[in-house]
Amino acid sequence: MRLNYILSDLGIGLKRNLSMTIAVVVTIWVSLSLFGSALLAREQVDLMKGNWYDKIQISVFMCTKDSGGRGCAGAEVTQEQKNRIRQVIESNPDTAPDGVFGESKKEAFESFKKLYKDSPIVSTVTEDQMQESFRVKLKDPQRYQNLVSAVSGLPGVDTVQDLRQYLDPLFKALNGLQVGALVAAGLLLVAALMQISNTIRLAAYARRREIGIMRLVGASNFYIQLPFLLEAVLAALIGAVLACGTLWVFVYVVVMQRAEETFRVWQWVGAAETFRATLIMVVVGLILAVVPTFLTTRKYLKV
Q1: Tens digit of each residue's pLDDT (9 = 90 or more) over 84-98
Q2: CB 84 within 8 A of CB 156
Q3: Are 35 and 178 in a shared domain?
Q4: Is 253 exposed, middle or buried (0-12, 13-18, 19+ CB in 10 A)?
Q5: Owning domain of residue 47
Q6: Which of 41, 119, 245, 265 sits between 20 and 30 A of 276, alpha carbons compared?
Q7: How many domains is the chain partitioned into structurally?
Q8: What beta strand segments (E) does the chain contain?
């Protein structure tokens, strides 16, 4: 009998506030969709960082007679200088075991010809113009500055290159977009919170006499609040389901069908990351429904 009353009261409440309920559903749908997209953006940036930073090598280019580096002095690197450079690199605590690879002029020229095989520039470059180099793999790609500082300026060293100087601006831009998406999602979640509060407040005010009578006859607070709670939870769940569906469609169409096929060099978010994001979205949606309902209806429980 009590269940029938609660369900009947829920149906009456939804009919009375149909337009407000639809507005709550749409707001939660949009806000959770953006929130889930921000969560996936964070996962994507982390995957890209892990994929690229683990492959980063420091390249130490040695002097030729035409080099202008501060360690060159217009002369070709000597064997003694190369031995000293290798010794400094191998003794650095950040260098990975067996992580030093030398590239001769001949090897560099062969790589150059493969890279620019269809370009006329190949015919204008000779093997003698190539630079010998050491390619260094680090134990931790994040700790690259110590090694760069140790070898920069050594006699025989022309330049030291690290891909982080090119990748960091990209990841900073991606992190900025991620923060912007989270801020926008947060504002929309606040808007959804306020809209749910207003909807419940209007519903409770319209039924204040019924609430007062139920309170006088001994109904518990939770029993009185339950129809309002179910109304908010139902709206939140519908919005969360729509948001989760939107996120899955986006990942399937944009990421799995297009991005993965076009940019195979990067690792992309998939089903596991999307599933985690949707779980968080549902939990956040339920919190948006439960918390404001209890806070809003509490003042109407006093006779």
Answers
A1: 988 888 888 888 887
A2: yes
A3: yes
A4: exposed
A5: 1-53+168-301
A6: 265
A7: 2
A8: 57-62, 95-103, 133-138, 157-162
